[in-house]
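Budget justification aside, the reviewers requested a transparent look at the raw inputs and outputs of the sequence design task funded under Objective 1. We therefore reproduce one unedited record. The lines immediately below are the structure tokens for a 249-residue chain.
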């Protein structure tokens, strides 16, 4: 048996519940949550969709580390000490304690408003993404033919196009924790992707440098690489932020 210690929230009421779940081989944390919801407490709220690490909906804090519940195996985290997370991932400070072996602490993603239990309001995160205008605005406006780019450029862009908008990086970010207007690692990485893209109009480059040249932009980053450590798709926001800084100096 494994104990799931889950942070619950209903409006202003916050509490922890512990549920005992029988561990099955290969069980993910998401499957363990299904077990709780279907057999022990139907009121437990969490978000998911694809169950295959594609949609990004199931990001939550598991043993104080932002992770996808569908991709996290119960066997890998049930004996994890609170201050010694596996994979060299830095833990996020949060209120809960991991109390013993065979226990998994599950909390909502930090730095976003909780709607209920493990479900956070993603609107603010999406607004931050929108603020950098994450789309190609071609000067040519020729929609009749494909605009090809070099394979070497494609390789550079790919690292940033892999983002699944799970907000794990945002939940791990100390700058986002102290300033809700900080644009955040996901949007900054996305901005770098559109800055690099040769199909975008040239004036985007100047405009985005101007827009991000502030404490809410690239200068707010603490350069602690937590976003890089937790990204389930290996997107690397911190190097992108440092590249932006170089362009501005
Ligand atoms: S349910 Fe889609 S990423 Fe986990």
């Amino acid at each position: 048996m494994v104990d799931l210690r889950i942070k619950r929230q209903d409006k202003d009421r916050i509490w922890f519940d512990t549920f005992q779940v029988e561990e099955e081989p290969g069980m993910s944390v998401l499957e363990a949550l299904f077990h709780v919801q279907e057999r022990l407490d139907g009121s437990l709220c969490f978000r998911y969709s694809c169950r295959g690490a594609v949609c990004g909906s199931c990001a939550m804090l598991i043993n104080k580390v932002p992770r996808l519940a569908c991709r996290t195996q119960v066997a890998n985290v049930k004996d994890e000490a609170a201050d010694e997370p596996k994979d060299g991932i830095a833990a996020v400070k949060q209120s809960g304690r991991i109390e013993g072996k065979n226990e998994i602490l599950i909390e909502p993603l930090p730095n976003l408003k909780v709607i209920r239990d493990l479900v956070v309001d993603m609107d603010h995160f999406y607004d931050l993404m929108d603020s950098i205008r994450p789309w190609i605005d071609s000067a040519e406006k020729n929609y009749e033919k494909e605009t090809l780019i070099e394979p070497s450029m494609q390789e550079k862009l790919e690292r940033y196009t892999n983002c699944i908008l799970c907000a794990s990086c945002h939940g791990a970010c100390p700058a986002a924790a102290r300033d809700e207007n900080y644009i955040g690692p996901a949007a900054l990485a996305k901005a770098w992707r559109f800055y690099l893209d040769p199909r975008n109009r040239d004036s985007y480059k100047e405009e985005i440098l101007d827009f991000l040249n502030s404490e809410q932009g690239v200068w707010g980053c603490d350069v602690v690489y937590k976003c890089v450590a937790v990204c389930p798709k290996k997107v690397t926001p911190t190097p992108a932020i440092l590249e932006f800084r170089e362009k501005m100096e």
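Residues 29-40 form the longest helix (12 residues). Strands lie at 2-10, 13-21, 59-62, 65-68, 103-107, 114-116, 119-120. Computational costs for records of this kind are itemized in the attached budget.
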